[in-house]
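User: Hi! I'm working on a homework problem where we have to compare a predicted structure to a textbook description. Could you give me the structure for the chain below?
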Amino acid sequence: MGAFTNYLENKILDHLLGRTTYTAPATLYVGLAQSVSDDGTVTGEPSGNGYQRVAVANNTTNFPNASNGQKSNANSITFPQATGNWGTINYVFIADAATGGNVLFYAQLTTSKAIGEGDTVSFPSGGLTFTLD
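Assistant: Happy to help. Predicted structure tokens:
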């Protein structure tokens, strides 16, 4: 189960209480990292060796309507094949930009994974679930 960052929690609260408009990004970017904190700080995101965040259209085809306070991906999310070492990955996150930007959601992987040359990281349909409670 994933968590919302402080950035997104504040945007949602301002949107609901005070009616400060928040517009969700049209494209989300899924990334990998060694660590992600509540404030959205990403540590150890791979660089080079074929790594790039995966762009996913933010729509109900890719993210069907929530149920019981949970939302999951409907389609596989697959990263490019690693052309070298990406290090040990402990977290997945969703940001609003291909680089930098704001981290919106993050989740710690059930099992850490060392990504080396020739590896392909993929999250199957339903493999990423985020909860709001």
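For your comparison, note the following. Residues 3-118 form one domain. The chain has one domain: 3-118. Good luck with the assignment!
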